[in-house]
Backbone:
């Protein structure tokens, strides 16, 4: 998720902090250092409708009902706010709708202020309102929209940081939204992102596989002896400005896809960005599942169906497509809480690293869909061409029980298997 053309095409929900002139004047000593590393509980939560303030009838029906949330304190006196963690977004916002109990309440904060149109922060956002305050109106290819004003307030970390953000009073999301979430926390590499503002050069997280279990988000650098050995893959960049390449996303190079250890016959040209920049591979905590461009998805689907004959019973309903992109679906007896044994693992092959998806993470039970005594489960890889998305996206469902580290100084992303519930307990951010 991001603010460029390519990122807009994959944005499911976005939230990011903008830097104000106050932030730019902060001293070097205000950076989050190794000795000030911030540790926050990270939760995988099912979502419900409260942020859905309006429902335009012309929006694309594309839904995600799982999100990663963290809690921060904002304002003076501090208000606790729950935010969706999104490594694919830049522009942050807080819901400032006074009619709801779960909003951020700006009038209760003595450090809150609106950003005037004369501020450099406002240059990308027009028009101004009658009071010369900077308006924002965000819309994305998935149908999500947010409208409000740019504002600034204190975010409480080991050091207090003034940051500008979108103070949103009306919002529509094609995703149902967390009952307690007040906004989204943008973590991409853009100049206005949370990590850019706070000069964070390394952060990591561990997403628990169990629903409602506690994971952990680590901002900054810390020596953690229980973190597993990480395999790193370099961040991928293109020097030329291309219309569909998101330059501030965490883009890596997909080299191949394995099923049960065997490499699929996918041409290398399919896995690299084309002349427009479309086809990059993005690591995105703000997207639930993983998306593959059409030809790669077809190769995976054909091989997965071939290898699961006799293990899984196909749904065989051509018109059934979960969330508009997932059409490899199966029937599993409703009494089963998990898929059967014998399902082959799928690996996303990157230079120096692999993201291995196996077991329960391969299939997702579709709520409310039953056929007699069976429930409908779908493969958690979607066809990006059906959405449409102009990129490969590695979603957070396939990052479960991995320690994922973003090392900006060395331009790389690291992956290592770990039990996230145990890691969060050992790091002191347990349930």
Residues:
């Amino acid at each position: 998720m991001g603010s460029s053309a390519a990122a807009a095409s994959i944005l499911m929900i976005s939230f990011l902090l903008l830097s104000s002139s106050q932030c730019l004047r902060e001293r070097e000593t205000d950076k989050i250092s190794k000795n000030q590393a911030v540790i926050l509980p990270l939760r995988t939560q099912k979502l419900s409708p409260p942020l859905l303030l309006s429902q335009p009838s012309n929006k694309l029906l594309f839904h995600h009902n799982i999100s990663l949330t963290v809690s921060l304190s904002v304002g003076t006196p501090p208000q606790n706010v729950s935010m969706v963690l999104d490594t694919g977004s830049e522009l942050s916002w807080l819901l400032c709708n006074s009619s709801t109990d779960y909003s951020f309440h700006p009038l209760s904060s003595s450090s809150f202020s609106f950003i005037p149109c004369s501020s450099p922060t406002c240059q990308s956002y027009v028009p101004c309102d009658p009071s010369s305050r900077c308006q924002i109106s965000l819309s994305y290819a998935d149908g999500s929209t947010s409208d409000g004003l740019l504002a600034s307030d204190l975010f409480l970390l080991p050091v207090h940081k003034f940051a500008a953000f979108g103070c949103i009073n009306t919002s529509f999301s094609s995703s149902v939204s967390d009952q307690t979430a007040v906004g989204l926390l943008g973590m991409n590499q853009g100049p206005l992102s949370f990590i850019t503002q706070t000069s964070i050069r390394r952060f990591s997280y561990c997403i628990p596989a169990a629903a409602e279990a506690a994971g952990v988000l680590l901002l900054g650098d810390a020596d953690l002896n229980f973190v597993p050995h990480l395999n790193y893959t370099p961040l991928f960049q293109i020097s030329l400005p291309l219309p569909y390449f998101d330059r501030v996303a965490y883009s890596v190079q997909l080299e191949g896809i394995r099923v049960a250890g065997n490499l699929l016959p996918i041409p290398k040209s399919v896995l690299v960005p084309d002349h427009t920049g479309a086809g990059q591979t993005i690591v995105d905590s703000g997207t639930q599942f993983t998306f593959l461009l059409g030809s790669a998805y077809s190769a995976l689907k054909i091989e997965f169906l071939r290898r699961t004959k006799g293990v899984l019973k196909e749904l065989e309903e051509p018109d059934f497509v979960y969330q508009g992109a997932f059409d490899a679906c199966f029937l599993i007896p409703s009494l089963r809480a998990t898929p059967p044994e014998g399902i082959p693992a799928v690996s996303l092959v990157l230079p120096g690293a692999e993201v291995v998806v196996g077991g329960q993470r391969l299939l997702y039970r579709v709520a409310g869909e039953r056929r007699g005594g069976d429930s409908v489960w779908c493969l958690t890889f979607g066809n990006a061409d059906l959405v449409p998305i102009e990129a490969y996206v590695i979603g957070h469902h396939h990052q479960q029980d991995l320690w994922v580290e973003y090392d900006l100084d060395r331009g790389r992303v690291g992956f290592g298997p770990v039990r996230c519930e145990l890691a969060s307990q050992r790091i002191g951010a347990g349930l």
Q: What stands out?
A: The radius of gyration is 21 Å. DSSP finds five helices and 27 strands in the chain.
